Amino acid sequence: MLWPQAVKDRIKTGHDRELVHSYPYRSACPSTVWAELVEGATEELFLAGYTNYFFWTQVPQFSEAVRRKAESGCRVRFLLGDPGGEITRQREAIEDVALSVSTRIRISVEHLDRIGAVPGLEVRYSCADDAVNHVSLSVFRFDQEALVTPHLARLVGHDSPLLHLRRQGPGGMFDRFAEHSEELWSRAVPVG
Q1: d(CA 30, CA 35)
Q2: Local structure of 35: helix, strand or coil
Q3: Chain centre distance of CA 112
Q4: What are the residue ranges of helices labelled H in 2-156?
Q5: What angle do CA 19, 162, 76 make, to 5 degrees?
Q6: In which element (H, E) is residue 187 found?
Q7: Of residues 183, 139, 133, the one with CA closest to residue 164
Q8: What do you get for the CA distance between the two ends of the chain, in Å?
Q9: What is the pTM of this model?
């Protein structure tokens, strides 16, 4: 009786409470959101985008943040596509853009190489059998929050939609996407 039905209808319940915000394009998500999530992560930073290239242009002083996170005990993982893989080659033909998928992956690897060997920092390529599942869905985890991009057909990642999720309990959307990225990670191969 205290809450009219109109108010009850507007309050999120159940697993849909995990959806913090949605964006029609990944590029519509403010860079401040990315930076705040990176800075706020204390236990886990797991970036499972196929190229992860845009982090170095989107987040100020990203390499320093990665190093600092890993050195402070935060587990930092990068799951990348294989720049020489067949799925990468196919995706390059689909996207048909000057800054190719393999080039974007190599740029990420170059930045990570410059950071050097830091305990807590791990980098892997998705295995060939998982590449098609990896290239179609990017999952970026920051402790109990995630930014998820389901890649649409022929669009480059920044033109695909993005969901901002915050874990509210077991079995929700956050956990489902987290399990997907963990499965890919379990079969991935170390870079270098």
Answers
A1: 9
A2: helix
A3: 16
A4: 5-10, 31-40, 55-58, 62-71, 86-95, 101-115, 131-135
A5: 90
A6: helix 173-187
A7: 139
A8: 63
A9: 0.89
